Amino acid sequence: MNEFYRDEWVWITGASSGIGKELVKQAYQQNAKVLLASRKSKDLEMIAKELGLGKGRYAIEKLDLENYTKVSEFANRSLKKYGTPKVVIHNGGISQRSLTKDTNLKTIEKIMNTNFYGAVELTRAILPTVPNQKQVHFAVISSVAGKIGSPLRSAYSASKFALVGFFHSLRAEEEKSGVFVTMVYPGFIQTNISKNALLGDGTSTGKMDSVIESGLPVQLCAHRILHAVANKQREVVIAGIKEKFGLFLQTFLPSLFFNMIQKAKVR
Q1: If exposure means fewest CB atoms within 10 Å of the residue's CB, which of 80, 82, 129, 181 is most exposed?
Q2: Domain residue spans in the chain?
Q3: Which residue from 182, 224, 21, 178 is spatially nearest to 88, judged by alpha carbons?
Q4: Rounded-to-integer distance, Cα 166 and Cα 148, Å
Q5: Within 13 Å, how many C-alpha atoms sit on residue 174's CB side?
Q6: Burial class (CB in 10 A: 0-12, 13-18, 19+), 20
Q7: Would you call 156 a catalytic residue per the annotation?
Q8: Taking the model in full, what pTM does it have?
């Protein structure tokens, strides 16, 4: 068991399901004190009970990332209660399954606000507490879609690409000051991300993608995220052979990759 997390606060956004829920479970098993953050606070209470989280070893705070102008209120409240966390895992987010021409601006804004601006505002609120006090480690859940743009995911990919640019710049600015960044690029992981993904009009698909259903187990994904953070990896790709092959082609044979991605079955 890694001692990196022992008795340290780990804040996890999007903790009510999927990767976030599994991160809560595994971080707690590594003796971390876990702050569960989500707009679904009732679900968080149920998760805490289900996982048997002990008193004093966890906290629940409501956080609506889409309403990003209010995120600093969550941050200031939590910082006052628990102090500067050792690790912040930016996991909260929402995906998309619609052609660009069929996607309205409100839906694009919802995705960008939740996936990008919410993470940015939480980070900006925490940064002033870091100099001359303690180190903080941001683990940022981007996506293979933050490296590869594919059909039906234009706004989602844009939000994940944006995270990469922002946090790469932050890393270059602040790593010497004690701010460490691990960028995480999951591929197809067995979660409900496709069921909760938005159609062009902002409604949820309610459908499981076949590639998600046959993806990597969420337990493996969470384990590799926590391992990457504890070992101060700056980048980690957590994906199957198909996604890794796509990344290889995009880098070394971009024309071939473009022809393939146009024809790819992405649902």
Answers
A1: 80
A2: 3-240
A3: 182
A4: 17
A5: 24
A6: buried
A7: yes
A8: 0.96
